[in-house]
Amino acid sequence: MIEAGSAAWRRATSDDAVALRDLERAASLVGLAHVFGELPYPEDDVLARWVLLLDDPSVVVEVVDDDGGDELVALAAHDGETLRHLAVRPDHWSAGLGREGFRRAEAAGARRLWVLEHNDRARRMYESLGWRPSGTTQECPWPPYPTELEYAAAPSP
């Protein structure tokens, strides 16, 4: 297992689009099964979103490759003000990669993010890092359209 302190983050390229989709799918199917249940994973839509994000010069997508370089184990996507996506392959959960990806986005200026209301694992991590719900909500674009909460960084002292 790759630990956070030894992870080599790199900037993703358009060649990583399918691997980004696959990593996000792996994390979602395990971590969000209680939200999305047996609904089919929106593979084509998620892949199309990654292609657009990788082509957007305002978005930074950083990844960690597994030891063999065949798959991705972590991703963090941010645009200078918002943490857009953060995912870690389930067999690497609790290795600190999520926190490290979060900190990278925060260091680049991210001060807000959206998280599913019932993504308790992610919410615990964000709250342990001092972020709090802003009170703003929106509907997730994927069926069954669960609620997303906006989180904001704690104000600087």
UniProtKB/TrEMBL annotation:
Domain N-acetyltransferase as annotated: residue spans: 18-152
SUPFAM superfamilies per the UniProt record, alphabetical: Acyl-CoA N-acyltransferases (Nat)
Membrane spanning stretches: none
Gene3D superfamilies: 3.40.630.30
InterPro entries: Acyl_CoA_acyltransferase (IPR016181), GNAT_dom (IPR000182)
Protein's name according to its UniProt entry: GNAT family N-acetyltransferase
Organism from which the protein derives: Nocardioides potassii
